[in-house]
Write a structure and sequence with these properties.
SH3 type barrels; globular; 1 helix; four-stranded antiparallel beta sheet; alpha+beta
């Protein structure tokens, strides 16, 4: 398991993935994970760097810092 991110890293994640932005799942190591390529809306980034997402499949699994990957797909 990866160490928790520093406060500065969490703040950077919050700026990169603000609530309401759209993301696409690239990788999630969880048997309950939505399929790669699933899109969703960011709800929040918590204090340990997990990006909480409302996936279009109905799943609510978060993207764990240092373990899973997603990318922002909307443009400001």
């Amino acid at each position: 398991m990866k160490p928790y991110p520093r406060k500065e890293q969490v703040e950077a994640l919050r700026k990169a993935y603000p609530a309401g932005c759209m993301v696409e799942l690239l990788e999630m190591n969880d048997p309950q994970a939505p399929p790669v390529g699933t899109k969703g809306t960011v709800i929040a980034v918590d204090d340990v760097g997990t990006i909480h997402v409302a996936w279009q499949t109905g799943s609510g699994l978060g993207v764990a810092y240092g373990e899973d990957r997603c990318r922002r797909i909307d443009h400001d």
